[in-house]
Amino acid sequence: MPGAGAIILREGRASDAPALAAIHRRVRQAAMPGLHEAHDEADVAHWIATTLMREHRVVVAEQDGMPLGYIGFGEDARHGPMVLHLYLAPAWRGQGIGARLLAAAGAALGPRLGLHCIARNAAALRFYRRQGFRVVAQSDGAGTEEGEPDLLLRRDSLPTASNDREPSP
User: Fold this and answer.
1) What domains lie within the chain, and their CATH numbers?
2) With 0-12 CB in 10 A as exposed, 13-18 as middle and 19+ as buried, what is 134?
3) In principle, which of 113, 136, 141, 142 could form an S-S bond with 148, CB 3.0–4.6 Å?
4) How many CB atoms lie within 10 A of CB 88?
């Protein structure tokens, strides 16, 4: 639950991976009940520490030393600058943290960003649309681990300041 200390953004560390994996799983289960998870929490933590953090950049939002959420981003050979993961613990939504994490990716990669989102993740889609993203392509999910239809979203400019405190995914 929200505490009293300042919420800071910092570079992710391999030691964060178990907490980030727990957030990852909790958020997905809450947003999309019944979602087929191809990997358990330990596998996700291993992937975050050994692949996501080594090949891309991860920024963690934390309060009083406790991770609240994270964003993973980098260059994708096919799609250019991409947000690869953005997960925020449900208790922390609506406080502008998701927008701050997206701003960190935008500061590093520029305002033109892409991302994939599972089509039935309505809360995430609302958030991304408020942040200036639009759907540019969709798939039937046959090529995804979850087997779920997904959307490719793109943002070509920074959102207005009024969007900064909207609920996060």
Assistant:
1) 8-163 (3.40.630.30)
2) exposed
3) 141
4) 25
